[in-house]
Write a structure and sequence with these properties.
- This protein folds into two domains: 100 residues, no CATH class; 73 residues, 434 Repressor (Amino-terminal Domain).
- It has a five-stranded antiparallel β-sheet with strand order 3-1-2-5-4, with helices on both faces.
- The longest helix is centred in the middle third of the chain and has 12 residues.
- Helix 6 packs across helix 7 and helix 6 packs across helix 8.
- Helices cover 44% and strands 14% of the residues.
- The chain starts with a strand and ends in a 17-residue tail after the last helix.
- Strand 4 and strand 5 form a beta hairpin.
- It contains eight helices and five strands.
- It is of the alpha+beta class.
């Protein structure tokens, strides 16, 4: 008898999540790993039908990036976590603890001034305190910058750039009228 599986894959580092259906999830994972430029891992899987997969797609449509890929926002992680806890699906033992922690601790950051920086923090589920430690600056400094209460010094910009391995350069969002 063929086993029908609903699976949840995530790009390494807290990236987008794919919700899919397969009769052979290991083979599906192998195919996706071959065609995806980033490492993938299962965050959950379990017995399910195509209708179960569709139920997830319908419920998560506001978080869809493209096709079957979703932003790892708190509601997406919470829905997956709830389904897995209710016994409908199961987590690989190595990831349930980490996902629970992300749901509990991470609240999406918002900033009109620094959208790329906020996107980096939200996708990677990094707290301001974690980034501050890594950059050698106060998390309150980062918080004040995001809130628009202060402008970053050049030293702060460089520290965050180094701490994010060159992924974030703290530049404010350009104004449409050309004025800064």
């Amino acid at each position: 008898m063929t086993r029908h599986t609903v699976y949840f894959l995530q790009l390494e580092g807290g990236g987008p999540i794919k919700v899919g259906y397969s009769q052979n999830p290991k083979m599906r994972m192998a195919n996706l790993k071959h065609s995806c430029p980033y490492p993938l891992h299962f965050i959950g899987l379990g017995n399910g039908k195509r209708s179960d997969e569709k139920r997830f797609h319908d419920a998560l449509h506001n978080h869809c990036i493209h096709g079957e890929w979703y932003r790892p926002d708190s509601p997406v992680l919470q829905m997956i976590n709830d389904a897995l806890k209710n016994g409908a699906l199961r987590f690989p033992k190595t990831t349930i603890k980490g996902l629970d922690k992300n749901i509990r601790r991470h609240k999406p950051y918002k900033s009109d001034e620094y959208p790329a920086f906020v996107n980096y923090l939200n996708l990677r589920k990094i707290t301001l305190r974690q980034l501050g430690r890594k950059a050698g600056i106060s998390h309150m400094t980062i918080r004040n910058i995001l809130a628009g209460n202060s402008k970053p010094s050049l030293d702060t910009v460089e520290a965050i750039y180094r701490a994010t391995a060159g992924k974030v350069w703290l530049a404010p969002k350009p104004k449409l009228d050309g004025k800064q």
